[in-house]
Amino acid sequence: MLEMKDIRKSFGRIEVLHGVDLQVNAGEVHALLGENGAGKSTLMKIVSGIIQPSSGTIIVDGSERHFANYDEAIAAGIGIVFQEFSLIPYLNAVENMFLAREMKTSLGLLDRKAMRQRAAAILRKLEVDLPLDVPVARLSVAEQQFVEIAKALSLDARILVLDEPTATLTPVEVEHLFKVMRELRAAGVAIVFISHHLEEIFEICDRITVLRDGEQVGSCTVAETDIDQLVEMMVGRRIENSFPPKPAADPGANVVLEVEEVQLRRGGPVSSFQLRAGEILGFAGLVGSGRTETVLSILGAYPAARCKVRVDGVEKRLRDPADGLAHGIGLLPESRKEQGLVTEFSILQNVSLNNYGKYRQGHWFIDFKKELACTEDAMSQVRVKAQGPRARVDTLSGGNQQKVVIARWLNHDMQILIFDEPTRGIDVGAKAEIYQLMRDFTARGYAIIMISSELPEVIGMSDRVCVFRSGGIVATVQGSAINSEEIMTHATTGRVQHVA
Amino acid sequence: MSHDANLDAASAGRGRRAALDWLLHSPLALPLVGLIVVSVLMGFASDNFFTVDNILNVLRQVSVVGILAVGMTFVILTGGIDLSVGAVMALAGTMAAGIMVNMGLPGGIGLLTALLVGLGLGLFNGFMVAWGKMPSIIVTLATMGIARGLGLIYSGGYPISGLPGWVSWFGVGRVGIIPVPVIIMLVIYAVAWVVLQRTPFGRHVYAIGGNETAARLSGVRTRSVKLAVFAISGVTAALASVVLTGRLMSGQPNAGVGFELDAIAAVVLGGTAIAGGRGLILGTLIGAVLLGILNNGLNLVGINPYMQDVIKGLIILLAIYIGREWR
């Protein structure tokens, strides 16, 4: 159905794809694997006509095609669902699906009835039930993704590219997505599936193509391989046991943070928890279960209905993340680009952003020498790989960007670090490094709260786990109770405590 | 000997490459090119352009807008905008004149009044934007109306004249051959440069324009920084009012209409991104001078004043168009 042969692509003098072949058949889910920067996205942009290859051929349905732009690719039956959605947040699902090709009545007005019927028909075929009248911004991430897929199908896409569709989905939503994918496969659609979750590949995919550094490392069927082999193909080296060992629990460790009560919304559940020095406390739960809002409330960056916090046993009212900084609580936000980094700044400026208290000259001025020295020190502590401290952060890989955000907190007298989805969008090798760093921190006495939607990560890293559901903590588990069944059961069926 | 010559040539080559690199990447490059092109054109068009007198005259003419543009640069760097500066300047000047003329208070109190009016309205803007969480374009639009109205109420709509003679020193005085307003303007620019480039506060200003959420979540007190940039803009408006009042020798409630737009034009012509996060105070100075040269040059050449506005507008558009992709 889709065949790409010897695709090369150069940006300037740098070749980023060195002759890649990809063959996707009708009725097949084809995994495209590779670390960040391996060339997956470039290849998919070429398929969809957004960029043009320097050389090589693209064959769709047996005839060679050249796509000058996205529209030509769409016309040839290619649909792509990007990692960052291209939906207009204030329009509803129907309006989004028919954006720029609205159906019209004979008077030239919008034919809303016809569009709605067509949209409903497509969604029904996918067995997806979502409200058609609300702005898509109010839909869940998964629902928005279904709107994107439905939009591609409404354009008669027979080749569908899904770029990391599961990155922000909960396990239940992933199951639903897979069900939809299986239906599409049965209907003869060729699907290219990009994901960092290797377990998913084995669940849903038929064949796999692995890229590394712009080269095609191999293609095989799912039955011929296993996770270890795939990881080795992706990173070129075998990574064993990417989670560092958990140290023995120290029941006598100080409680550094005690959240006596936090209530996100008036009338919602009230939660409480304690955090001890030297431990990693996992926050598990479905996306939207209130984990991020809870930590933001503690820091004063979310308007919770109630929030009572003790830091080192003393009651504190934090009104701004700056107060958190003053009390030794630092946040590494969920989305590095939108919440973590000033992308136009250099590494140096990003690291020193909250560090100026450390290097002043004559009280008012920046001590540039000390700034550079401190930054280089912090960079080497977390092993940021970059040309130097003056490199712009938007030139770094996801893993290195995350390390820059971590480095920001190292020169402070911090005692609590909150990692929100610490390894999202980060490749396998860098993940292991981040995990090791987190354990190094706890060994030095830091207490860590880790919000994660990846169960293996929660299980592999946490000393204790608070499970969230519907805005509150429904269970706290530790020791051998930290396993997927236990956590998933609480996350999907747990009862929250409601207080008027 | 030849070895040394080779070294020299090599370092000269490096120097040239560094210069080229700078030219291609500095946000100042384009404003500078614009300044040179316009100056040369004006030089050809009028023999009087490249005279010391005329150049000092241009600088003197741009001083009021130039001073306003300093505060505007701070605000725009954080991603905001301040439409109230023209009206705040008029109110500050009018009240200062009123205090000195009608109440007979000493000049020091008059100056202080102007500064307090500017600072107060700037803090008001900043508070409404940072704590009231309202868009700066709306808040300062409202303040613009309020300040203009208060100035007219206070003065009854008439200019307040009869100021003591020394006030004119701020507007038309000279130190040697250099006009006092030019000195005031340059000092303000120098201070602004130090604040933006050498202090943590300056870095936070850029960070907020670059990514406010990231700055806030990393522990920068973003609300305080936003309050401060509007306060700075109010203070520079007050300083501009001192120069203007000195030049007009009266407090004029109707002065400075549209000056906020000239100040914004100077900032943008100077290469500062309107969305914030990128730009240099030196660029704003170049932008202000560029605007001044256009005004002056088009006058020298004798172009119809109505036509001048059209030409200025087109040049601003052209400059922004070229600067669009310039990084």
Give the topology.
The complex is a heterodimer of chains A (500) and B (327).
Chain A lengths: L1 E10 L2 E11 L4 E5 L6 H8 L7 E6 L2 E3 L4 H6 L2 E4 L11 H5 L14 H14 L15 H14 L4 E5 L7 H16 L3 E5 L3 H7 L2 E6 L2 E7 L5 H9 L19 E9 L6 E7 L3 E6 L5 H9 L6 E6 L2 E3 L4 H6 L2 E4 L3 H5 L6 H6 L7 E2 L3 E2 L1 H15 L15 H10 L8 E5 L7 H16 L3 E5 L3 H7 L2 E6 L2 E7 L5 H10 L7
Helix pairs in contact in A: 4-5, 13-14
Chain B lengths: L1 H24 L3 H17 L6 H26 L7 H17 L5 H24 L5 H20 L4 E2 L6 H5 L1 E2 L2 E2 H19 L1 H18 L4 H27 L1 E2 L7 H11 L11 H21 L3 H19 L4
Antiparallel strand pairs in B: 1-4, 2-3
Helix pairs in contact in B: 2-12, 3-8, 3-9, 3-10, 3-11, 3-12, 4-5, 4-6, 4-10, 5-6, 5-10, 8-9, 9-10, 11-12
Description:
The complex is a heterodimer of chains A (500) and B (327). Chain A is an alpha/beta fold. Chain A has two domains: 2-235, P-loop containing nucleotide triphosphate hydrolases (Rossmann fold, 3-Layer(aba) Sandwich), CATH 3.40.50.300; 255-328 and 413-493, P-loop containing nucleotide triphosphate hydrolases (Rossmann fold). Chain A has 17 helices and 22 strands. In chain A, the strands form five sheets. In chain A, strands 6-7-8-3-9-10 form a six-stranded mixed beta sheet, sandwiched between helices. A six-stranded mixed beta sheet of chain A has the order 16-19-20-13-21-22, with helices on both faces. Chain A is globular. The model of chain A has no long low-confidence stretch (mean pLDDT 87). By secondary structure, chain B is mainly alpha-helical. Chain B has one domain (28-323): ABC transporter involved in vitamin B12 uptake, BtuC (Orthogonal Bundle), CATH 1.10.3470. Helices cover 76% and strands 2% of the residues of chain B. Chain B has helices at residues 2-25, 29-45, 52-77, 85-101, 107-130, 136-155, 168-172, 180-198, 200-217, 222-248, 259-269, 281-301, 305-323; strands spanning 160-161, 174-175, 178-179, 250-251. In chain B, a hairpin with a 2-residue loop joins strand 2 and strand 3. The longest helix of chain B has 27 residues, at 222-248. The two termini of chain B are 41 Å apart. Mean pLDDT of chain B is 90; it is low at 1-7. Classes of the chains: A alpha/beta (500), B mainly alpha (327). The A-B interface holds A 299, 301, 320-322, 324-325, 330-331, 333, 338-345, 349, 352-354, 356, 360, 364-366, 408 and B 194, 198-200, 203-204, 206-207, 210-211, 213-221, 223, 277-278.
